[in-house]
Write a structure and sequence with these properties.
This protein is mainly beta. The chain folds into four domains: about 140 residues, Galactose-binding domain-like (Jelly Rolls), CATH 2.60.120; about 70 residues; about 150 residues, Galactose-binding domain-like (Jelly Rolls), CATH 2.60.120; about 80 residues, Immunoglobulin-like. The protein has one helix and 36 strands. Strands 2, 5, 7, 8, 9 and 11 form a six-stranded antiparallel β-sheet that branches. Strands 19, 21, 22, 24, 27 and 29 form a six-stranded antiparallel β-sheet that branches. A hairpin with a 2-residue loop joins strand 7 and strand 8. It is elongated, with a radius of gyration of 30 Å.
C-alpha cells in the first residue's frame, strides 16, 4: 500500500495512467476488483482484504485460490484512456514455489494475453507484463491469476501507458475548481503536433489564466508539442457570486460533496433528497471554495442559513465543521411536514478566520452516544438551499476581547473618540455593521478622532499601527 497526499486546490491530470485500475494500493478496501474462479476453475477461491499485510505499508488485496485459474480482476471492464502499449506492474507475496501470472483481457472481438508464470519466493515479489496494441474502442481488464492453490497478497498494481520513443507528453493541472480538455486527447504526441487545451470552469468559478508552459487569459489555447509540456489552468471564485447555493440545476450540487455513506436519492426542482446511512457520518462538504470571513471584506460571511425538511424520526441536530472544529450545534425538528429554516452563527467557531476552504454541515442524532456525530437511522433529509450571509450584530464582542493593546474611550461615544495605544496609530477606519467604510482618518494627533457625524449604532474600528499591524475594536455610538 502506498499513501498518497492530495492537495486541495491542485488536481493533476497524469499522462501515464489509464482507468482500468482504479484502486492500486488497497489502502482500506479492494474496491474496483472482483474474484473469478476462471473457466472450469476449482471451488474454494475468494477475494479478501488484509489490513496487516502490504508491500510498503499495511493494506493489501488477498486472493485465496483453490487452484488454477482462480483469479482477481478489475471490475468493471473499461476502455483504456489512450491507444497504445501498457505495462502492468504489481507486488505479490505467496508461499515459496507457488506461481501467478498477469493477464490482460480486451473484448470485441475478445482476446486474452498474459505473462509467463512468476514463481513466488515467500516474500514480496515484483511482477510485470507489457500489453501491446491496446485500443480505446473496446473494454479491457487486468487479471492476476493463480497458477496453483494458495494464498496470495497483492499490492501496488499499476497500469501505465508506455510513451513511444521520440514522442512528447502534455500534463494539465488545475488550481481552483474546473477541468481541462485536450484536443486531440492522447497519451503522447509527435513533436510537430498542435494540441488545443480548453479550461472549463465549475459552478461559481471563473477561468483566470494559464501558467506553466502556456500563458494568456483565453480559456481555449493552442500549444505545440515540440517538448514535454505542463500547463496549469487557474480558476478563481466568481466575484459576482452571493454565496447562495440554490441547487436549481438537477444533478449539480454546485461544488458541495457528500460523505461516502450519504447519497443523493433524487434531485429535481431545486430540491435535493439526501439518504444517510445509520451510524455513519452524514455530512455535506464544501471543500476548496473560499468563503470570506473578514468583516472588512467587500463580501463577507458570518452566518449560514439552511432550509431543509427532515424526514428522519431521530436525526435531531445540525452542526457546522470548519476545518476540524465543530460548532453551532443546533436542534432541528424531526418528521417534518414542512420546510424549516435554521440559522447558525459562524463567529462562534474558532476556525472561522481568513478565507475558509473546508466547511461541512453535519446531521446527527444527539442521543446516538455510541456513534457520536452520526444519525441513528436512514431517514431522508430534503435540502432546499444553503446561504452564507453577513450579520453585523454577530461576533462583535469577540472582536473587542481579542485586542487589548489599544483602548477606545469613551465607549459608547458621542462626538469625540479617544485612542490610547502603546505604539503610534497611523490610520483609523470605521465601518458600520454592514461592512461599509463610513469614516477614515490619518490620526495625525494619535489621540482622538471626530465621530460626531456618525449615527447611533454599532461600528467596527480598524486601527493600523506604525509596525503595519492591524487591530479591530467594537465601537458603540449613542446620540
Amino acid at each position: 500500500m502506498k499513501k498518497i497526499t492530495l492537495f486541495l486546490l491542485m488536481l493533476s491530470s497524469s499522462v501515464g495512467f489509464a482507468q482500468l485500475v482504479t484502486n492500486s494500493t488497497f489502502d482500506t478496501a479492494t474496491t474496483g476488483w472482483a474474484y473469478n474462479a476462471g473457466t472450469a476453475g476449482p471451488a474454494g477461491g475468494s477475494i479478501g482484504y488484509s489490513a496487516t499485510e502490504g508491500f510498503t505499508a499495511p493494506g493489501a488485496m488477498v486472493l485465496v485460490a483453490g487452484g488454477s485459474p482462480n483469479r482477481v480482476q478489475t471490475s468493471p471492464n473499461v476502455a483504456p484512456t489512450f491507444a497504445g502499449d501498457y505495462k502492468i506492474t504489481a507486488k505479490v507475496k505467496g508461499t515459496a514455489g507457488t506461481t501467478v501470472t498477469i493477464q490482460v483481457f480486451q473484448g470485441a472481438p475478445g482476446s486474452t494475453t498474459g505473462s509467463s508464470a512468476f514463481t513466488m519466493t515467500g516474500g514480496w515479489d515484483a511482477i510485470e507484463f507489457t500489453k501491446t496494441g491496446m485500443v480505446t474502442s473496446a473494454t479491457a481488464g487486468v487479471r492476476i491469476v493463480a497458477g496453483s492453490a494458495g494464498t496470495f497478497y497483492i499490492d501496488d498494481v499499476y497500469f501505465t501507458y508506455q510513451i513511444p520513443a521520440g514522442n512528447t507528453t502534455l500534463t494539465t493541472n488545475v488550481v481552483g475548481s474546473g477541468t481541462v480538455t485536450k484536443t486531440p486527447n492522447q497519451g503522447s504526441y509527435l513533436p510537430t503536433d498542435m494540441v488545443t487545451v480548453s479550461a472549463i470552469n465549475n459552478t461559481h468559478w471563473i477561468f483566470s489564466n494559464w501558467s506553466g508552459d502556456l500563458s494568456g487569459t483565453s480559456p481555449s489555447a493552442n500549444i505545440t508539442m515540440n517538448s514535454n509540456k505542463t500547463v496549469t489552468a487557474n480558476f478563481v471564485s466568481d466575484p459576482s457570486f452571493d454565496y447562495s447555493f440554490d441547487f436549481l440545476t438537477d444533478g449539480n450540487l454546485e461544488g458541495w460533496t457528500l460523505d461516502p455513506q450519504i447519497t443523493v436519492s433524487t434531485h429535481t426542482g431545486g430540491l435535493v433528497t439526501l439518504a444517510p446511512t445509520a451510524n455513519q457520518f452524514a455530512r455535506l462538504n464544501l471543500l476548496g471554495f473560499p468563503i470570506p470571513t473578514d468583516p472588512m471584506a467587500a463580501k463577507k460571511c458570518n452566518k449560514v442559513t439552511v432550509v431543509i425538511k427532515n424526514g428522519s424520526a431521530t436525526t435531531n441536530e445540525l452542526a457546522v465543521v470548519v476545518g476540524t472544529i465543530v460548532s453551532g450545534i443546533t436542534p432541528i425538528t424531526t418528521n417534518d411536514a414542512a420546510y424549516q429554516t435554521y440559522e447558525i452563527d459562524l463567529t462562534k467557531n474558532t476556525a472561522w478566520t481568513g478565507d475558509v476552504t473546508s466547511f461541512k454541515l453535519r446531521f446527527a442524532d444527539s442521543n446516538n452516544t455510541a456513534n457520536a456525530g452520526k444519525p441513528s437511522d436512514s431517514g431522508s433529509i430534503i435540502l432546499d438551499n444553503i446561504r452564507f450571509t453577513y450579520d453585523g450584530s454577530l461576533g462583535l464582542d469577540a472582536i473587542s476581547k481579542n485586542n487589548n493593546s489599544i483602548a477606545l474611550y469613551p465607549n459608547p461615544a458621542k462626538d469625540v473618540l479617544n485612542i490610547s495605544s502603546a505604539s503610534k496609530v497611523i490610520s483609523v477606519d470605521v465601518y458600520d455593521s454592514t461592512g461599509r467604510l463610513v469614516l477614515k482618518s490619518d490620526n495625525k494627533s494619535n489621540d482622538q478622532i471626530n465621530v460626531s457625524d456618525l449615527q447611533s449604532g454599532i461600528y467596527i474600528v480598524r486601527l493600523k499601527n506604525a509596525d503595519n499591524s492591524i487591530e479591530d475594536k467594537k465601537l458603540v455610538i449613542t446620540k
